[in-house]
């Protein structure tokens, strides 16, 4: 695959999800990611389950195609190493609490002195201004504060989305900001900082639901597996397991009624228009499921799909990974950890010129590339050993050959 970001070096100070997801996307496109981790355990996600033996699958799912250097951030030697890395970087990524960069000595002025062309990308919890700017922010807290939980789950409930959706999308937004800044810089723009926050991203996920509240003063509520405004669009019972059906326009509505053998329903006064169908959703669902329950899901899905109506089964993740479409897309790629164990990973979601992104290397061990990166900075093997002995850097024992 063409790697449009090849030659771009990113110093990655981030941890947990939002920042690492951002830099994983950049790595997919060919950027060199140097993951700088604290000597006090590294990225916090390394300690989060689920585990496969000693390997955190949580961490590994987010840190493909990166190199890890492990240093003491607060020692003079560690800060010197960090300065030298930043001097040769195009981008610095961080998702610390507001003000942490300054505590590390990486003030705006110092960064500008080190590297006038550096782009700093930040993800915070609540942004850089306002009464909450200094508060810690985590995905579920922001899911609640952004309104997202209020529209998730069955009617009357408030449920978190089953993945850390605000963290993940904040990482996507940050990656977009970085690429935009790189393009702007290449065109002569003086761009030095891009930032987003979990709250800003979470609010942007509201789209038409948020617009309803803004324009009409009406707070939308949870609708379970039904689309909040379009009907029939949701989960429906069959003779076996439920399926998802999405009837999105009048043409599909008439085709759906014909397919179910009830063409007159298309012109029933209760269901003649989209708003009427939504207003009378309960009655309509009962009528539709009385027909859908006569055949198993495995028969309905191809019939409905062939009628150009979006439809599909409801898989758990194991079933999803076993599907023919996932295999055809090559979404799962296998790498080998340094200990020789096999690690299947989901590749990035982008393709360039029809070729899918690739995983270039397995997620790094803590400090796996410390010696290698220090040597690239011109530090000798003896000096690396002294730094390690003094507790200023960590070199993974399984990579001692890199010292030489």
UniProtKB/TrEMBL annotation:
Transmembrane segments: none annotated. InterPro entries: CoA-transferase_III_domain, CoA-Trfase_fam_III, CoA-Trfase_III_dom3_sf, CoA-Trfase_III_dom_1_sf. GO terms for molecular function: transferase activity. Gene3D superfamilies: Crotonobetainyl-coa:carnitine coa-transferase, domain 1, formyl-coa transferase, domain 3. Keywords: Transferase. This is CoA transferase. The lineage of its organism: Bacteria, Bacillati, Actinomycetota, Actinomycetes, Micrococcales.
């Amino acid at each position: 695959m063409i790697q449009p970001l090849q030659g771009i070096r990113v110093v990655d100070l981030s941890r947990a999800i939002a920042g690492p997801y951002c830099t994983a996307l950049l790595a997919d496109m060919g950027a060199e990611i140097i993951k700088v981790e604290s000597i006090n355990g590294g990225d916090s996600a390394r300690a989060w389950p689920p585990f496969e033996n000693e390997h955190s699958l949580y961490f590994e799912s987010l840190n493909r195609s990166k190199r890890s250097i492990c240093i003491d951030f607060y020692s003079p030697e560690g800060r010197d190493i960090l300065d030298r890395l930043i001097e040769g970087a195009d981008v610095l990524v961080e998702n610390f609490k507001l003000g942490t960069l300054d505590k590390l000595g990486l003030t705006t002025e110092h960064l500008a002195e080190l590297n006038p062309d550096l782009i700093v990308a930040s993800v915070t919890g609540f942004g850089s201004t306002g009464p909450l700017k200094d508060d810690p922010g985590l995905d579920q807290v922001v899911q609640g504060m952004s309104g997202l939980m209020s529209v998730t789950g069955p009617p009357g409930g408030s449920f978190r989305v089953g993945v850390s959706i605000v963290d993940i999308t904040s990482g996507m937004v940050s990656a977009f900001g970085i690429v935009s800044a790189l393009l702007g810089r290449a065109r002569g723009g003086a761009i030095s900082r891009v930032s987003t926050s979990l709250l800003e991203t979470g609010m942007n996920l509201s789209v038409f639901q948020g617009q309803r509240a803004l324009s009409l003063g009406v707070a939308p509520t949870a609708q379970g597996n039904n689309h909040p405004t379009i009907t029939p669009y949701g989960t429906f019972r069959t003779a076996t397991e439920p399926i998802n059906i999405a009837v999105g326009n009048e043409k599909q509505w008439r085709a759906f009624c014909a397919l179910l053998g009830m063409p007159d329903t298309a012109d029933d006064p209760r269901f003649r228009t989209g708003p009427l169908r939504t207003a009378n959703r309960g009655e309509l669902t009962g009528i539709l499921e009385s027909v859908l329950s006569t055949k198993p899901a495995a028969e309905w899905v191809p019939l409905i799909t062939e009628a150009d109506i979006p439809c599909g089964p409801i898989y758990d993740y194991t079933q999803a990974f076993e599907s023919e479409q996932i295999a055809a897309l090559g979404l799962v790629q296998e790498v080998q950890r340094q200990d020789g164990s096999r690690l299947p990973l989901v590749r990035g979601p982008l393709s360039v010129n029809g070729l899918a992104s690739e995983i270039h290397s397995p997620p790094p061990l803590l400090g796996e590339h410390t010696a290698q990166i220090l040597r690239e900075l011109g530090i000798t093997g003896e000096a690396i050993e002294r730094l390690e002995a003094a507790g200023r850097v960590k070199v993974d024992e399984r990579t001692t050959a890199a010292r030489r």
